[in-house]
Structures are given as C-alpha cells and as structure tokens.
Model the fold of this input.
Amino acid sequence: MELIQIDPYRWEIKKAGAMRVPARIYSSRKLIGAVKKDETFRQLVNVAQLPGILNAALAMPDIHWGYGFPIGGVAGFDVEEGVISPGGVGYDINCGVRLAATHITHEEIKPHLETLISALYQNIPTGVGATGQVKLSNTDLKKVLKQGSRWAVAQGFGEAADIDRTEDQGCMPDADPDAVTQKALERGRKQLGTLGSGNHFLEIGVVEKIHDPAAADVFGLAEGLVTVLLHTGSRGFGHQTCDDFLATMTKNRTIDGMELPDRQLACARIQSAAGQRYYRAMACAANFAWANRQILIHNTRETFEQVLGIGPRQLGMRQVYDICHNIAKFEQHTVDGQSRRICVHRKGATRAFPPNHPDLCAEYQKTGQPILIPGDMGTASYVLTGTPNAMEETFGSTCHGAGRVMSRKAAKKSARGRSLEKELAEKGVITRWTGRSTLAEEMPEAYKNVTEVVDVVAGSGISKIVAKLRPIAVIKG
Done:
C-alpha cells in the first residue's frame, strides 16, 4: 500500500483492491514514522473494506494498533447497508474522560497535596477487579444500565448540571438490559464507582496556559487554577459484553457471504437481529460507564472538601465535560451533500461537535463541544473544542489522547531498574498506584508527545486549542 502525503497534516492510502473507500490519516511527518513500524495501516485498510462504510476509513494522530480496528480510528456506516462491529468499539465500551475545574489555586493546594492524593487513593477503589461501595440489586443494576448518569445523580452522586455537561446527557436511550448476559451483569454488580487498572487514572492538574480566553471563561478555566481529570470506563461489565458478542460473531469469517479481511473485524449488519442486539447491549455498557464516572467525580468532590476543610461554594468544583472514546452511535452527518443518519464508530477517538450543534447544551452553543485530550502522567493534557471542519471531514471526531508509541511489554522492560515514582516526583508529579507493573506500562515514554498530537488536530482545523493542563498528582489503577 502506498501512503501519500496530501498536506502537512493529512495522508491518504488510495482506494485499491477490496477497499470500498480510501483510508485517510491525520498525522505529521514526525508522528507518522512510528505508525509505519507495525500493522496499524493494514488494519485501517481492512476497515475500509467493510460493507456500507462511507467517505473514508479515518485515523486520528494518536492512531496505534488495536483489536481489529486501530485505536484512534473513526468510521461511518450507512444504516441500511452498513455493519456494527464490537471490535470497532473496543473492549472498554465508553472508556472516557471527565474534567472538573475548581476555584482553588495551585498555591492554595500545595500544602495539602500529599494528604489529598492519599485520601483520594483511599476513597477511590483502584486495580483489576476492584469493587466499590455501591451495592446494587438486580433491579437497581438494570436501572443503571437504562439511565446512566441520571441514575447516579438521582441517588445523590452529583449535580443536575453534571448531566448537561456530559456527552448525550450521560445516557443512550436504546439500552436494553435483556440484551446482556448474566455473566456481564455479575461482573458489573460490584464495580460501580471504581477506577480500574491499565491506562485508567485520576489526575490533579493545574491550568498552565490559556489559548482561547473566551472559551476558557465559559468552561471555568483560568491559569493557575486546579483541575481534576478522570479516565475510566465500563469496567468488567463492558469487557464481558464485548467478549460475549465477539464469541458469537467471530464464528463466521463472512458477512452475508462476503469474506472479512480479519476475523477481529467480526460484525453484523446494523439492521440485523444480531446487530440490533449488540447495539442495545453496548448502550447498556455506555450507560454503566457514565454512571461510574459520575459516582467517581462525586466522591472526588467530597474528598477535596473533607481534606481542604471547605464547602462546595469555596471549592467550586464544576464539571467541564464528560466524553466517551469507544462507542458506536447514530448521528446526523452530511454525506455526498445530503444530511443522513449514519452509524459512527469511534474507537479511541472523541466526538468533536462545533458551535451551534443541537446536541450540545445551551451554555456550550457558542464555544462548541469541549474536547479533553489526556497526555501521559508526566507532561500535559489539553482542552480543545470541536469545529465545523470536523463535521465536514471526520464525522465530528478528533483524537482521544497521546496514543501509545511503546507496547506495555516494552515499557516494562524499559522501566527495569528505574524509580518511576522518583522520576515523576522530580517533575513535580506525586503518584499513587496499585501495581508497579501498571506504573511501568504507563510511563511517559510509552506515549507519543501529546503536544505534537494536538498540534495535528489543531493544524488540520478539526479541533481548536483552549487550554493546556499540567499534572501535579496522579492515581494509577
């Protein structure tokens, strides 16, 4: 396959062979070198062969190898002829990020930071298989799966404004608990309000630089103020749901008689019984994840107030936004000059809707959707907004993070003999973690330079930079 550079931020693999559409990659000359070393582009070309795919198989600058679909991949499908794929969504359904801003300055929090991060580590369950304090009956669990964030707020975990500042108001309406297995229900029953492991984290940061003062003011961000960034998903419930549907769909390497290029791209027609059942189950997992992050941000607010000895008004912890990364959703987009309802897969990618989009809450109509881009735990994260260009080119999508540049195995090998905790402390970042191997897997060198990644989406016009955040304390699962 031949990779052609279109401009400084866009690359393309032209339609050839079984490809139904071209593959388009957003990247820079510096970043794209790392992607060429593995099979990521082959995965993108495979996605371009799926039935019903529209416009192009897209990749964001944080692209790297994944299960079937590359992580950082976006694909829109025709509702009648297209497919829905568990591998195109990923195992951690609605893995996502939530950002909160506060009225507290870095100087004010410094004397309390060690105590605060330790208290958060105590109050927020972390690690593989961790269980939370929320005990759910069968009836309550099914309410969580149907209502998402709304269930959590109704139980006292947060504020009504949190729902407005959450993608899809924290609930996919087509969720059907009868579409998920008993095994998935059992895995999720005790995991609500837990962080998990792997690349999941809670990060206390400081607003280092404002790029767009008007949007930052609407988001409640100002230089020197403390923020909280939370990254987690649907835990064992979402993983089991993905696993259950892959077990069924991967039995066939064909769809309606057409050979799939990779069994990991197992899928079903969107309108088929199997496709509809997966969508309804996936929506349950998405709602579980939103409820999970809602409970976690509520517990974070309470911990800040307890440790700092202040009330909600003085803390001023305001949710900026919550976005999901791994999802398939029905949205309205313009294709070939016509407005159509299509199914958009975003796997390790973020929705990036522009100003005046009807799906945004009233207070973000003029700014566009907040976009949250975590980097690694030693450098920076960014807040951006969606743009009209994203709607025209990427089905309203942008990158979701820095993107791995080193495998977990290679990261652990690189970390041997080193004190990552000390190295991060020397950079001004306090850490708490559940397992040393997790800390090693997530070491800063394991990720691309987040500033270079953000420069691509800003330079190509599919996102606009609002603010840069700097980490000062991190909990790893």
In short: The CA atoms of residues 84 and 270 lie 5 Å apart.
